[in-house]
Fold this sequence. Notes:
The complex is a heterodimer. Chain A is mostly beta strands. Chain A has no helices and eleven strands. Chain B is mainly β. Chain B contains no helices and nine strands. Chain B is globular. Classes of the chains: A mainly beta, B mainly beta.
Amino acid sequence: EPEVTQTPSHQVTQMGQEVILRCVPISNHLYFYWYRQILGQKVEFLVSFYNNEISEKSEIFDDQFSVERPDGSNFTLKIRSTKLEDSAMYFCASTPGGGAWQPQHFGDGTRLSIL
Amino acid sequence: DAKTTQPPSMDCAEGRAANLPCNHSTISGNEYVYWYRQIHSQGPQYIIHGLKNNETNEMASLIITEDRKSSTLILPHATLRDTAVYYCIVKAGSARQLTFGSGTQLTVLP
């Protein structure tokens, strides 16, 4: 069964540094998402992306965050200047084209640790 | 999106059916019910979704009451690998973001 893959599985970065988290969505999916989960807390929506544009974003997704689909297979989340509170699991998800009712399929996440 | 209420935890004996309830009394006509689960340290895994009718797939069954104010996820023969946090999420068909609550921690006991 096709799946969403995320790399790296664990990223350790110094505070203030830039970090890029990478995702390969399911082939032929057209909508892409990032969520995060701070340890012990709920999964939170960050952003959705379609046709090379952000379609929805949450209050968490401020100017420090950006997303990009640099080629036909990768989808990335960049944090420009990391803070301690950015430490979390980051999950990528994707859905096929068509209605928003279609279920999202998640990767197993990247654990980001900010020192 | 409508708010959902789930019990914080449940136990189930291995091999028995696990019935996980969810209350969504403020659900609107265009909102779907989705169930996901999260096994420790993994990403949320889609299980099933429905709008009005009961649904069944290879993983589970979803029973939605006629008034749509509550639903039950049924895992017909629970195994130890079904131990996870189960999330019931109500989302409009036009919305993109999923709003996760605290879910139900299901523990399958040997």
